[in-house]
């Protein structure tokens, strides 16, 4: 199966179960290399359906303080792009079989070489790519490489996106579309934006692709609320905060179980 | 697209054909930003195009440039510096005499007026390195009654302290940035994060010919007033030499003062256009900001919205840069410079911290002008260039700003010597 097909299979399955997918984000190399492998394994056991794995970049301009600090820590420990892909293959060898979507900024990928990156990512076990500073206007080279390799290109939409942009992003995305819940950067928030359901509906009118909502979701209750209106619930900063706490693996396992229960409510 | 897949055109080049409609100068430029900002970039472009085609807007901008900024800034003949160097005759375009002490006001006022007259927004955010763009933005915001927040790396706040105080006097909130290298690049990240969060009410007033389309074009156009004036002034037989220069020299941080003076001269193919980057402690040291001069660190890449030359490690992480001047201490360079360089129309050299200090002192002693440390890089290059040229040849140097803000740094440097 290609990466696109593996991602599609997850959403087909969760639709059948009449729930949304739980999609945790974790920055590779944080807080350490070993802990990364344990955390992702713990989340897999806790009920994750699909992973977003962060490849750290020095200038994460769409990220808030939590993820900035985490990816900076990963970088200072010498985490490279090649390392991140190696961790993916180790996780595959350990038996983690959920789809992996690599999330990174364009420059690390571009510096690696777009075609080389896509080839090595597929070989390591990556299924899709999310590049928040790469709109479809600039994504031609990456899309072409991904298309040949069966890797999903997951573009983002935001509350500010116009109808024309929604159509454009829907036409270029494969696997699912990432809906940024808020006008803002990543970070746990105490409340969901009031107009979220309207935003999801606005996108829904233009596409049958699965819609996953991320940015700001932190609790099981919020996950349940988002699961009621979308196909996937993406949780980043709240889990990253847990990973950085004392006994991070257990804290992540606990929060992961709460979020996984949330999408099944 | 990589530069190898796009060979620059040959023969007579139509410079007005660039950028394309998505903001690409050949392989450079474009819009590499989060989706949240894409509609804002479209709106900005639309507002900008409306403004430049609106006589009333352009008249108001010209009026403010005359009566508030003090334009046109003069050109001065640098007789003693020319004699000292023993070669070309040197003329200086005096952006140091513009209100707030640097060329940055040309762009800041242009964008602030654009926001006020053509966009339904009420708040400005900006980044600043040397503090000159921050001061210019704070000034334009005060003049037009706009709320303003400026992000500045804490390292830069320390080395450009007078400008921090100036911005606060002007009613602007200065927010220190502690992330990364705590300099210009990090201030831009933080300004972009603010913009992403508040995009419905806020305009990002970017300070150089950088960032996603339409910024490189818009900033260039607002700064081109420098070159348009200089063209007329050089041809003046009374106060000027009565002919075009053989070379124009300007320092290049993001590249706005350079592109501003270069652009009106692009068609005049006999005028050499020379940009000077910050050589810091020398190229071999790796501690510099000479993106074009170091093939190991300076490679094609994307930083903060645009594809250009970017100082980076082999893994695509952005390298830390160094320059004695905060305004040149940046890892990337405006995309149009990269393209004009590929076309062979512009040339780039670098000037180390020490050479810039030498230029700084000479200009003070021989011409009675205290330059900004950024501009001192352009002067430093004259020390190499002018003696290789004949006495009947002419160099025009863009003195992008004055040095009041740098006195602390210079005092420290001189006491170490
Ligand atoms: C006086 C002066 N010159 C030059 C620069 C460099 O910017 P640019 O290359 O955009 O002209 C700065 C930036 O802060 C500056 O303050």
Question: Could you explain the architecture of this structure?
Answer:
The complex is a heterodimer of chains A (265) and B (417). By secondary structure, chain A is α/β, with parallel strands linked by helices. Chain A has one domain (3-263): Aldolase class I (TIM Barrel), CATH 3.20.20.70. Helices cover 50% and strands 13% of the residues of chain A. Chain A has 12 helices and 9 strands. Chain A has a 9-stranded parallel sheet. In chain A, strand 7 (177-180), helix 9 and strand 8 form a beta-alpha-beta unit. The longest helix of chain A is centred in the last third of the chain and has 16 residues, at 248-263. The model of chain A has no long low-confidence stretch (mean pLDDT 97). With 417 residues, chain B is an alpha/beta fold. Chain B has a domain at 71-102 and 225-416: Rossmann fold. Chain B is 40% helix and 18% strand. Chain B contains 15 helices and 14 strands. Chain B has helices at residues 38-52, 55-69, 79-85, 104-118, 132-144, 154-159, 161-169, 184-198, 215-223, 225-235, 256-262, 335-342, 353-367, 373-385, 407-416, and strands at 24-25, 28-29, 75-77, 89-94, 123-128, 147-153, 173-177, 202-204, 247-251, 272-280, 298-303, 306-311, 346-352, 394-399. A 6-stranded mixed sheet of chain B has the order 3-4-14-9-10-13, sandwiched between helices. A 4-stranded parallel sheet of chain B has the order 7-6-5-8, sandwiched between helices. In chain B, a hairpin with a 2-residue loop joins strand 11 and strand 12 (306-311). Chain B is globular. In chain B, 60% of the residues are buried. Classes of the chains: A alpha/beta (265), B alpha/beta (417). At the A-B interface, helix 3, helix 5 and strand 6 of A face helix 1, helix 8 and strand 11 of B. Bound molecules: pyridoxal-5'-phosphate. Residues 102, 104, 129-130, 132-133, 208, 251-258, 327-328, 372, 374-375, 400-401 of chain B line the site of pyridoxal-5'-phosphate. Pyridoxal-5'-phosphate (PLP) binds at residues 102, 104, 129-130, 132-133, 208, 251-258, 327-328, 372, 374-375, 400-401 of chain B.
